[in-house]
Write a structure and sequence with these properties.
Strand content: 15-25%
Distance between the termini: 76 Å
Oligomer: single chain
Number of helices: 2
Radius of gyration: 20 Å
Strand order of the largest sheet: 1-2-3
Length: 105
């Protein structure tokens, strides 16, 4: 009986490790989305179009970037339906937003 209990315990520990790695993958994508939003907002506030294009090109695969601005500030939103590892795993919506004041001309 002890052998079966150890086997189930080892299986549970392995599943917990896999679940933790999956959660960390989703968090990593969220951090990448936040970095992209902040970088695009900073460069847009400086009106550096080429740097904005490079920052948008570095976004996570499948992410959409929307830039809105007025005379005082720039708002950038990055949205992603995260599906780390496999498409049959649950999809997690990830969103990041950055607001930056425009730099004076």
């Amino acid at each position: 009986m002890v052998t079966v209990e150890i086997a189930f315990g080892a299986l549970a520990a392995a599943l917990a490790c896999i679940a933790l790695a999956w959660v960390l993958s989703v968090l990593g994508l969220a951090v990448r989305c936040q970095d992209t939003a902040a970088e695009v907002a900073r460069q847009e506030a400086r009106t550096d179009r080429s740097a904005v294009a490079r920052a948008i090109a570095d976004r996570p695969k499948g992410a959409t970037v929307s830039v809105r601005g007025d005379a005082e500030q720039v708002t950038v939103t990055v949205e992603l339906i995260a599906r780390p590892w496999a498409s049959w795993l649950p999809a997690i919506p990830v969103s990041a937003r950055a607001v930056v004041l425009r730099e004076p001309a």
